[in-house]
Amino acid sequence: MDKGLNESRKDFPILDQQVNGEPLVYLDNAATTQKPNQVLTAILNYYQADNANVHRGVHTLAERATDRYEAARDKVAAFINAASRKSIVYTRSTTEALNWVAASFGNLVVNEGDEIVISQLEHHSNIVPWQQVAQKRHATLKYIDLTKDGELDMASAKRQITDKTKIVSIAHAANVMGVVNPIKELAAIAHQHGAYMIADGAQAVPHMKVDVQDLDVDFYAFSGHKMLAPTGIGVLYGKQDLLEMMPPAQFGGEMIDFVHHQDASWTQLPWKFEAGTPNISGAIGLASAIDYLNQLGMANVQAYEREIVAYTLPKLLSIDGLTLYGPSDPNKHTGVMAFNLAGLHPHDVATGLDMEGVAVRAGHHCAQPLMDYLNVTATARASFYFYNTFAEADKLVEAITAVKEFFADGIS
Ligand code: PMP
C-alpha cells in the first residue's frame, strides 16, 4: 500500500505541494494533522447555510445550529463509547480540558499531604496544571519512571501509587517516546487505592479505537486538531457523577440556571461547563472528522500506522549515529518517532530536512522534564498519520542521510 490509507490523500490538497522545490512530506502530525476537504466543506456549509448562536434562539437558524452542535456531541460520545452525552464537555483543547480537571476537580479532592502521580513522559499540559494543584493544596507531585526502552515502568507505577494518591494522570499515547501506556491497568491500580484516573488522549484518539468505559478512566482529554478537525475544539470526557460534583471552571452566559443579584445556580450537564458562545463550527468540524475516521475505520488506521512504523523504524535505526527515543521494537512504537543525530543540533536537522521538503518538529516537544530525564536538550521528531505513504518514509530516511552528509562535508 503506497498511496496512504484508502488513497485518502486526494482529500488533503495541502499535501500536494512543493516545499523548497521538493514534494512536501508532512511528518509533523503529532503537532497537528491536516484537514480533509470533507471537514473544510462541513465548516463552510455551516457558515453558508446554518450560522446562528446556539441554545438561546427560537428561530429556525438558531435551532439548526443548535441541532448540529448537539448532534456533534452525540457523535463524540459514540466515538469514544461514553455512556452518556452528558459526559462530553467541549473545550478549546486537551490543554484546556486538563486545566479544568486540575483546577476544578483536583482542587476539590486533593488535600494537604495527598499525592498526585504523573509520569516522566508527560506533555507540559499534563504536568503544569498538577504542579499548580500540588502547590495550592500542599500536596506532593510524584513521577512514574520509565524503563530503559522508554516505556512506563509498571513496577515504579505500583510503588508511586499508594493510599495517599488522589489523582493519577497519564498520557494514553506519548508525544515523544512513541509508546502507548496501559491506561486500563493504571486505572485499576489507581482505583484500588481510592484515586481518580485521568488520561491525556491527545496522541491516542486520532490513532486508535478508544473506549473510555473499557479503560474505566474517570476523565479523558483530547484535541480535535490532532484528528483532522480544526484548531480550537477539544473534549473533556468525565464520568457523570464526577462531572456533577466538579464545579464549573468558567462562568457567564449559557452555563447558568438562574442568576440573582448576589449569586447564581448552574444549569445541567454538560452545559454547566460551557460558558459563553462556544466554538460551534469547531464542533461541526469535529463531527465531520469523526465521520471521516469512522469511514476509514480506526482499526484500519492503527493497522496501517503499524505497517508504516514497521517499515520505517528499522531503516532509521540502521542510520549510523542516529539515536531513537522510545522502544526499538516497531510493535511497541507508535507513528511518533523522536531521534537525534550524533553531533548535530535537532534544529539543524529539522532545517536540513525542510530543505528536502520534509516537515518534522525539533525542540523539547513541551516535555522539558522528559528531556531532563533523557539527558538531552531537544530532539527531532517525525510523526506519521494514515495519509503518509511508504515512499514518504523512504524520503525521510534519504533526507536524514543527505542532512548528515551535508553537515559532515560542511564540518570537514
Ligand atoms: N498532551 C499531549 C500528549 C500532546 O501531544 C499535546 C499536543 N502536543 C497536548 C497534550 C496538548 O494539546 P493541545 O495543544 O491541543 O492542547
Question: What's the quick description here?
Answer:
This protein is an alpha/beta fold and 412 residues long.
Task: Provide a descriptive summary of the structure in words.
The chain contains 13 helices and 17 strands. With 412 residues, the protein is of the alpha/beta class. It has two domains: 2-29 and 298-411, Alpha-Beta Complex (Aspartate Aminotransferase, domain 1), CATH 3.90.1150.10; 40-294, Aspartate Aminotransferase, domain 2, CATH 3.40.640.10. A seven-stranded mixed β-sheet has the order 4-10-9-8-7-5-6, with helices on both faces. A four-stranded antiparallel β-sheet has the order 13-14-17-16, covered by helices on one side. The longest helix is centred in the last third of the chain and has 22 residues, at 390-411. Its EC number is 2.8.1.7. Residues 25-396 form the Aminotransferase class V domain. This is Cysteine desulfurase. It comes from Lentilactobacillus fungorum.
CATH fold annotation of the largest domain = Aspartate Aminotransferase, domain 2
Shape-level CATH architecture of the largest domain: 3-Layer(aba) Sandwich
Mean pLDDT figure: 96
C-alpha geometry? globular
Structural class: alpha/beta
**How many distinct beta strands?**
17
CATH class of the largest domain: Alpha Beta
CATH-wise, what's the superfamily of the largest domain? Type I PLP-dependent aspartate aminotransferase-like (Major domain)
Bound molecules: 4'-deoxy-4'-aminopyridoxal-5'-phosphate
Strand content: 15-25%
Percent range of helical residues: 25-40%
Uncertain parts: none
N→C terminal distance:
41 Å
Strand order of the largest sheet: 4-10-9-8-7-5-6
Query: Please, how many helices?
Result: 13
Taken together, the total number of domains comes to 2
